[in-house]
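This section describes the prediction task in plain terms. A model, or a person checking by hand, is given the sequence of a single protein chain and must write out its three-dimensional structure as a string of tokens. No templates, partner chains or ligands are provided. The sample shown here is typical of the held-out split.
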Amino acid sequence: MHWRIGLVALAWLPFADGAGAARADFDYYLLALSVAPAFCEDEPQRKRGYAQCKALTEHGFKTMPLTLHGLWPNRFDRRHPAWCGGEARGAFCSLPALQLSADARARLARAMPAMADCLERYQWAKHGSCAGLDAGAYFAAAAALTERVNRALGEAIAGHAGREVGLDVLRQALARADPALRDAVIFDCRTPRTPDPAKRRPMLREVRVVFERDPATGAPGRPLDFTRAGAKHYNSGCPRGRAYVDSPLD
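The expected answer:
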């Protein structure tokens, strides 16, 4: 479910002004957080063409090691809802801007540097429209959860930039800082499609966190054990339980 700027299918949806959509039936939320250096390394055109990659710095990475990819309403049967307001066509920045307050937009921009590439418009169209929340509430929840996971895990990830870290070390950091998150987190490693042979190694690419759907509000609730979402293990593709953390300086 990784995004790319380009075409998505069919006609625009009626909720671009940030009004609440009719909520689809779903069971939990999946918070997808990117490790930006690994994302940007994956294809040469990302470093050249994506504003978020061109703006990536060591300071920015240390400040927010995990950046918001998306907050997805999901189902236990894996038939996840999407495009609940109707499908969309066009590059991300051709989609209508969302009506967010200045404070909400600034907070979201810190959590989601890919706002520079209009990712929030696409995420709202495909996923946020299914949550039953208005755009302000949906992205406020997504930003707050991104901040929470970074408080618990960001230092351990940023501190290993340019080298490997054991997933057990990252889970210990979670257990110390925010124990409720430990068994809600899945670590995903992938080998980037970079032309640099030295970089063709499994890297920590994404951290995924599972949250209950609050039955009263429809918003994200407490962390949920990843096994409830159908994952068999917290390790997704990291050889020998270790993950290389790419550095923005390389």
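For orientation: Helices lie at 36-41, 44-49, 51-54, 58-63, 102-111, 119-126, 135-158, 167-177.
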